[in-house]
């Protein structure tokens, strides 16, 4: 496990260095400094507030995802959410998801696989909401002339993502409804691989499917859907706020477009904090609208900074307030 994480870390670091090098080649330090100094940071503060409210909404949705298991107070869900996203910013391989599940399970006396299963459903809600944003963007945003290639790439990316999420959803449905048959199929598919993989994965899938216990109540399902829409509305707003802070006036659909690019960017294996991939995607998205390079890079740095540093600080605060040791967090990540 450790060797695998080391490989992912160094591979991700190489990817980040590559994209940061591409970005640095386009950077004029004086113009960059002038653009950052000229920004209206009142909008940046509003962006940070929107970011934290989106995390609060994530805690609300998580409550409904686990409500069939236990009615959990937001005072437990919100700190675990922040700690998880802090860990995602600081650790490789998105280990924050495991840590988020571990912290809540320990605090509320739940089984960690059950809590982690709820986070898989949580990510599926995110995926389909992002796809909805993508569809709205494709049908409402008019890219500048000469951007047909970028628009086609976005459509292809949207289709691939849709098919991926559809396949995952179908697999989870079959795993829940036809558990024995699906596990048998997985076992056959794993035959070309070392037997240790099958012996480790199949019990995990069996344990995982037992943790999928979505509430059938219509009001609970409606709360999950509505909170998902609000989560991503408050994820778009920080991008729009920061654009306004730099004096850039673009339609809200442009912020939606940039957010979709950022979502795709964080899927690319990179160093912790998505350094490089996140910045380059933001820069490229802004460049499509004719934003000067120095301003685009400045905006990319600030957009990333508002989603990185405040969450890391808040995460350590909740670790301290919840009396959760860093050793436990590290062991939860390493042991998963």
From TrEMBL:
<dbReference type="InterPro" id="IPR022791">
    <property type="entry name" value="L-PG_synthase/AglD"/>
</dbReference>
<feature type="transmembrane region" description="Helical">
    <location>
        <begin position="295"/>
        <end position="320"/>
    </location>
</feature>
<feature type="transmembrane region" description="Helical">
    <location>
        <begin position="124"/>
        <end position="144"/>
    </location>
</feature>
<keyword id="KW-0812">Transmembrane</keyword>
<keyword id="KW-0472">Membrane</keyword>
<keyword id="KW-1133">Transmembrane helix</keyword>
<dbReference type="Pfam" id="PF03706">
    <property type="entry name" value="LPG_synthase_TM"/>
</dbReference>
<protein>
    <recommendedName>
        <fullName>Flippase-like domain-containing protein</fullName>
    </recommendedName>
</protein>
<keyword id="KW-1003">Cell membrane</keyword>
<dbReference type="GO" id="GO:0005886">
    <property type="term" value="C:plasma membrane"/>
</dbReference>
<feature type="transmembrane region" description="Helical">
    <location>
        <begin position="43"/>
        <end position="60"/>
    </location>
</feature>
<feature type="transmembrane region" description="Helical">
    <location>
        <begin position="255"/>
        <end position="275"/>
    </location>
</feature>
<feature type="transmembrane region" description="Helical">
    <location>
        <begin position="221"/>
        <end position="243"/>
    </location>
</feature>
<feature type="transmembrane region" description="Helical">
    <location>
        <begin position="156"/>
        <end position="176"/>
    </location>
</feature>
<feature type="transmembrane region" description="Helical">
    <location>
        <begin position="7"/>
        <end position="23"/>
    </location>
</feature>
């Amino acid at each position: 496990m450790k060797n695998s994480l080391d490989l992912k870390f160094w591979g991700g670091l190489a990817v980040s260095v590559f994209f940061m090098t591409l970005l640095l080649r386009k950077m004029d330090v004086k113009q960059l400094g002038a653009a950052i100094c000229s920004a209206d940071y009142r909008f940046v503060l509003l962006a940070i507030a929107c970011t934290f409210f989106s995390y609060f909404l994530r805690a609300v949705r998580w409550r409904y995802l686990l409500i069939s298991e236990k009615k959990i107070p937001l005072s437990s869900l919100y700190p675990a959410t922040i700690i998880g996203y802090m860990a995602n910013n600081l650790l490789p391989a998105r280990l924050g998801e495991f840590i988020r599940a571990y912290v809540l399970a320990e605090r509320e006396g739940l089984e960690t696989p059950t809590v982690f299963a709820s986070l898989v459903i949580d990510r599926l809600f995110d995926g389909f909401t992002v796809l909805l944003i993508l569809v709205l963007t494709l049908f409402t945003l008019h890219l500048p002339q000469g951007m047909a290639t970028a628009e086609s790439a976005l459509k292809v990316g949207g289709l691939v993502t849709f098919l991926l999420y559809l396949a995952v959803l179908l697999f989870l449905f079959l795993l829940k409804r036809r558990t024995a048959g699906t596990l048998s199929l997985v076992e056959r598919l794993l035959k070309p691989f070392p037997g240790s993989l099958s012996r480790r994965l199949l019990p995990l899938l069996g344990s995982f499917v037992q943790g999928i216990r979505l509430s059938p109540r219509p009001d609970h399902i409606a709360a999950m859907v509505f909170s998902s829409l609000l989560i991503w509305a408050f994820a778009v707003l920080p991008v729009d706020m920061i654009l306004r802070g730099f004096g850039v006036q673009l339609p809200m659909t442009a912020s939606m477009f940039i957010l979709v690019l950022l979502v795709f960017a964080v899927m690319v294996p990179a160093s912790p904090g998505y350094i490089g991939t996140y910045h380059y995607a933001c820069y490229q998205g802004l460049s499509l609208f004719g934003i000067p390079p120095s301003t685009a890079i400045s905006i990319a740095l600030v957009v990333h900074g508002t989603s990185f540093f405040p969450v890391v600080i808040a995460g350590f605060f909740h670790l301290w307030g919840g009396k959760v040791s860093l050793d436990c967090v590290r062991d939860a990540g390493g042991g998963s």
